[in-house]
Design a protein that fits this description.
Spore Coat Polysaccharide Biosynthesis Protein SpsA, Chain A, alpha/beta, 24% helix, single chain, 177 residues, two-stranded antiparallel sheet
């Protein structure tokens, strides 16, 4: 199963450097290449572009995409989500995040666990403690040991599957809710 890491970047070179350093310190399988794609929204700083192009990624191919037009955060998210057409799944990271050293193992094990569950389009790779819609502690539904299901999508650290959800719908990505 091919899983790529996709980083959404724009104008924060220090934040991107911190994320890339945490990605560099994470563990990856030795026998499977892990592609890293850094997508930079048009108009992003020259420092971000330089950092992305000069980054050494020993775990697989590195691709830097500079968007042809300024997309903004939401449209850039959808453009990054389009990469599920090239991979079985992507781990989507915004540039102001950091990852655990074991995030990739968790992501691929979660993907394997849900591989036959057609109702799961994506997984959030962090523990949501706060419900931003109700300004209250998040309430989870226990489904299995060490797993909780949320009623609403979370905006950070996604694992998106290729053949499920919006990406498989006619008109996606151009038709938005």
């Amino acid at each position: 199963m091919s899983v790529a890491i996709v980083v959404n970047a724009y104008n924060r070179p220090a934040a991107l450097a911190r994320l890339l350093a945490s990605l560099q310190q994470a563990a990856y399988p030795a026998d499977v290449p892990v592609p890293l794609i850094i997508s930079i929204d048009r108009g992003g700083s020259a420092d971000v572009r330089t950092l992305a192009h000069n980054f050494a990624w020993p775990h697989g191919p590195l691709e830097v995409i500079v968007q042809e037009q300024h997309l903004g955060l939401v449209q850039h998210f959808f453009a990054c989500g389009d990469l599920t057409q090239r991979y079985d799944a992507i781990v989507y990271l915004e540039d102001d995040l950091t990852v655990s050293p074991v995030f990739f193992a968790y992501a691929t094990q979660s993907l394997s666990f849900y591989q036959h569950e057609e109702r799961v389009a994506g997984l959030s790779l962090f523990g949501l403690w706060f419900n931003g819609y109700t300004s209250s502690p998040s309430c989870h539904w226990p489904m299995a040991p060490m797993h909780f299901s949320c009623k609403f999508p979370t905006p950070w650290v996604w694992l998106l599957r290729a053949h499920i959800g919006l990406a498989s719908q006619p008109g996606f990505p151009h038709q938005r809710c």
